Amino acid sequence: MTPEQQMAHHIECIFNICIENGLGDPTAGGRLREIHMAGILGHKISPTLTGADGIDEEPAGCEYKSSTTSTLKASYGGISVFPKWEKQMQYLINDKICKYKNHYCSRYESGKIVEIWKLNCNDVLHLLEPKLYRKWKKITEGKVQLKDPRLSAQIGKAQIMKYGEKVYERA
After folding, report:
1. 84 near 131, Cβ under 8 Å?
2. Domain assignments of the chain as residue spans, ordered by start
3. 88 Cβ neighbours under 8 A, 6+ residues apart
4. What is the pTM of this model?
5. What phi and psi, each to the nearest 5 degrees, are found at residue 47?
6. 3-class secondary-structure state, position 156
7. Which end of the chain, N or C, is surrounded by fewer C-beta atoms within 10 Å?
8. Residue 1: helix, strand or coil by DSSP?
């Protein structure tokens, strides 16, 4: 078989597994990496493509972030913008960041998970808040025109390692 034929075969196998087990479309967004992370961590994958990514010991679920670059990082994007910062914080706490207590950040290398770190939502919020506030202020004051006017920010390797707990490392 050619490499393309091998890939087609494996893709069909992955889709069949997902269909048979109610895992959703593995090609939607980062779904394939979410399924992979859930399997490595012993979690259940969320049955829907919206809301929690996985189900760990917390019944509300958990959030998965993955980086495919050489550096560990967690990107948070697509965050709705509210006209008042108080409303923005309520949204971040209740609907976006702290809706899920545990956030798992993984780093991939050549299709394999190299490491996974677990962060508490309060630490994630603490790390993202100043970055999001700066962008929010620019957007709400009209100081920046963006194609996508939603908020986004990243947590870098040093912050993940300082506030997180390593829960997986590839041997």
Report:
1. no
2. 3-169
3. 81, 82, 132, 136
4. 0.92
5. -75, -15
6. strand
7. C
8. coil
Amino acid in position 126: H
**Amino acid type, 146:** L
CB-CB contact of 46 with 54 (8 Å): yes
Cβ atoms of residues 44 and 32 within 8 Å: no
Q: What class has domain 3-169?
A: alpha beta
Per-residue pLDDT 10s for the chain (171 aa) are: 899 999 999 999 999 999 999 888 998 888 999 999 999 999 999 877 778 999 999 999 999 999 998 899 999 999 999 999 999 999 999 999 999 999 999 999 999 999 999 999 999 999 999 999 999 999 999 887 778 889 999 999 999 999 999 999 998
Backbone angles phi, psi at 24, to 5 degrees: 85, -175
Using CA atoms, how far residue 68 sits from 25, 43, 112, 146, in Å, is 20, 21, 10, 25
Is residue 82 a contact partner of residue 140, using CB atoms and an 8 Å limit?
Answer: no
Q: How many CB atoms lie within 10 A of CB 60?
A: 13
Distance CA(132)–CA(45), nearest Å, equals 28
CA distance 22 to 35: 11
